[in-house]
Amino acid sequence: MNETPTKREYLLPPKTNVGVIGWLKTNLFSNWHNSLLTFLLVALLAWLLPPLIRWAFIDSLWNSSAEACRNIDGACWSVIPNNLRFIILGFFPEGEEWRPIVAMLLLLGLVIYSKERSRWRKSLGWLWLANIIVMGSLMHGGVFGLSVVETSQWSGLPLTLLLSFFGMIVAYPFGILLALGRRSNMPTIKTMCVTYIEMIRGVPLISMLFMSSIMFPLFLPEGVTIDKVLRALIAIILFTAAYIAEVVRGGLQAMPRGQYEAADSLGLNYSQTMRLIILPQALKIVIPPSVGILLSVFKDTSLVVIIALFDVLKTTMVTLSNPEWGRYSTESYIFLALLYFCFCYAMSSYSRKLEKELDTGY
Amino acid sequence: MKLTKSIVFALSLGLILVSFAHAGKDLDTVKDKGFIQTGVNGSVFGFGMPDEKGNWAGLDVDTARAVAAAIFGDASKVKFTPLSAQQRFTALQSGEIDILTRNATRTLSRETQLGLNFVTVNYYDGQGFMIAKDAGITSAKQLDGATVCVLPGTTTEQNAADFFRTNKMKWKPVVIESTAELAKTFFAGRCDVLTSDASQLAGARAKAANRDDYVILPEIISKEPLAPAVRHGDDQFRDIVDFSVLAMINAEELGITSKNVDEMLKSTNPAIKRFLGVSAGNGKALGLDEKWAYNIIKQVGNYGEVFEKNVGINTTLGIERGLNALWTNGGLMYSPPFK
Question: pLDDT by residue (tens digit) across A160-172?
Fold first, then answer.
């Protein structure tokens, strides 16, 4: 007969140190002040959450007329579906709504496609160029039998995306050039770059936008006008580039001298040194601060409100000037905040991923 | 080579986006391009604001449409540029827009120093007071000691201060930065009285949970004649804009509406015949088609119709005609003879 092996007794950890109780103990009630904090926070949540949930979900209306909203105590989310078309697309002509929507989807789709580093090949560049041309023709029209939609009618989310996306894309290389110029040994270039960077960083974005929209037209001969959206875009690019330049300069200065000397001893010229040795390392270091700047550019585009461009914030504000919906500003602003959050969160989580992938440990 | 190519590409792209309009007289410019570029407010309900579909609506918007109807015979030949208060006059000076219909008050300094010509007033506004009905106050003279919500740094604050000083009353201003917040604060009961231009007060009242709970007091303490404006330099264009506004007022005087204008063509009244171009003369004098006034009334309506449609007593704003009634009804709307 085989003897069943005697069960060896393992000493289990005390019940209070594992599982839910253990977690609670280590994280929430590890000492008296943590316990106090926990109780206070629970009390605060118990006090705040029920009315909030009641307001936002239970007593709220999600798709009704403005009339129906007058008789409820909760949130009137109906303000969003009823005005969604204007908030998102603004003045884009009726019946042509699919065009900006397709253009935005193309942009987002290609951005998502370009996330994988294995796809960063030359063909991707051509794909981007083709995509930009297609988006441009969709938005502006005048080709393939599409009716012309002037830039003055571009508004809402497409305008926000256009200003921020192209603001970032164009400003980044421009900023790198400025940073290289600032560290150059050639005195003229250096002075020009330093002056430019310090001048732009010395004025607020609002004043640049004001200059571009109010002062600038007065300098032009009468009858010549430069597109309003383009003017704002240029102001945003000029502004962002100066900030990018300083961030990139930080990365350049962090490069050890040995890297430059090694490149020199290999016989690389200036552009090769920069392109192959210095910039790839320097730009990697500055990913976190660059993303910080890109995020603030995205949010700063809403400043074009003051020069009466109808970005997604302005279209929402216009909706609120309609007396029918004017009382539901809280709901509208929450919706906008969520919209902005989605874009910003996507950007910052991608940058974290990129940082991890590029991390080589030195 | 690559660089040259991309520079050429960038330059040609630039040229597409920079447009050269014809220099010269404003009327010729407008006629050449085939539409009127109009500066409007963009966020004042009832005067100039897009609806949910992005179509422009309002009293100022209809005024611009009337000018388009006069020049082109088609009220839709107009494009709108929303402008902020700071941008509006520069946009007109720089030629970005052809006319400005953006609730701008006509003043001496604007007319002279800014090089603008204001035409006939299309809305007489003025600063007023709004108060909760159950306060039982019927006149602004009873407001001694009141807490008053105002916007900072505007003439509104100055006017209110002057009013209380002249009437030897005490007041406590509550200064709030934005118009929307101002109304919210007032409805939350943080101040007894809200002061602003009467048309704005009507807009604020429409946002209240129950608008009948609030009254606008009869006293108007400032003069705000809101008028369309054009640049100095083209008197013929100015005349056309001026008489387009006047035509709407004159039509109301003559009892011509967008509905009966076709029957009125058969009228035997010589004033109506001249006005609608049945007897020729007016059109030629302005350099327009003889049907110009007919087109305005047919496509846009007379002043009374436009007023009632956008801001009148049956709209959400619920503004009474008041000063904007015809002179025959105790208002200020008066048109010179069309002959």
Answer: 999 998 888 899 9
Q: From 3.40.50.11930, 3.40.190.10, 3.30.750.24, 3.40.50.2000, which CATH number describes the B127-222 domain?
A: 3.40.190.10
Q: Which domains does chain A have, with CATH numbers?
A: 150-220+228-354 (1.10.3720.10)
When scoring B15, B52, B79, B184 by the number of chain A Cβ atoms within 10 A, the one with the most, hence best to mutate, is: B52
Contacts of A226 in chain B (CB under 8 A): 17-18
Counts for chain A of helices (H) and strands (E), in that order: 17, 1
How far apart CA A252 and CA A281 sit, in angstroms, is 9
Report pLDDT for B66.
95
Chain B residue with minimal CA distance to A89?
B54
Please name the member of A92, A93, A324 whose beta carbon is closest to the beta carbon of B316.
Answer: A324
Q: Which of residues 181-210 of B touch A (CB under 8 A)?
A: 183-184, 203, 206-207, 209
What pLDDT sits at residue A193?
93
The set of residues, in sequence order, having a beta carbon less than 8 Å from that of B289 and lying 6+ positions away, is B73, B277, B283, B295
Per-position b or e across A35-58, b if 16+ CB within 10 A of its CB: eeeeeeeeeeeeeeeeeeeebeee
Residue A136, min C-alpha distance to chain B (Å): 12
- Residues from chain A contacting residue B48 (CB–CB below 8 Å): none
With both helix axes pointing from N to C terminus, report the angle between A329-358 and A79-89 in degrees, rounded to the nearest 10.
60
ipTM of the complex: 0.76
At A149, the pLDDT band (50, 70, 90 cuts) reads: confident
What does the pLDDT look like over B43-63, one tens digit per residue?
A: 888 999 988 888 899 999 999
A222 — pLDDT class (breaks 50, 70, 90): low
Disruptive mutation site among A69, A70, A214, A271 for chain B (greatest number of B CBs within 10 Å): A214
Ranges of residues in chain B whose predicted pLDDT is under 50: 1, 15-16, 19-24
What are B171's strand-pairing partners? B146
Q: Point out the residue among A155, A214, A324 whose CB comes nearest to the CB of B86.
A: A214
Q: Nearest chain B Cα to A94, which residue?
A: B53
Domain B17-124+225-324 has CATH 3.50.50.60: no
Looking at residue B4, what is its pLDDT?
A: 54
CA distances from A148 to A104, A113, A145, A153, A191 (A): 18, 29, 9, 10, 44
Helices (H), A149-215: 157-182, 187-201, 205-210
Kindly report, residue by residue over A185-197, the tens digit of the pLDDT. Answer: 899 999 999 999 9
Query: Can you tell me the distance from the alpha carbon of B264 to that of B266, in angstroms, rounded to the nearest whole number?
Result: 5
Q: B interface mutation test: which of A151, A154, A306, A322 has the most B CBs within 10 A?
A: A322
Decide if B21 and A224 are in contact by the 8 Å CB cutoff: yes
Residue B24's pLDDT is 44
Q: Residue B52: which of A83, A214, A225 has the nearest Cβ?
A: A83
Return residue ranges of chain B for CATH 3.40.190.10: 17-124+225-324, 127-222
Q: Is B29 on the interface with A (CB under 8 A)?
A: yes
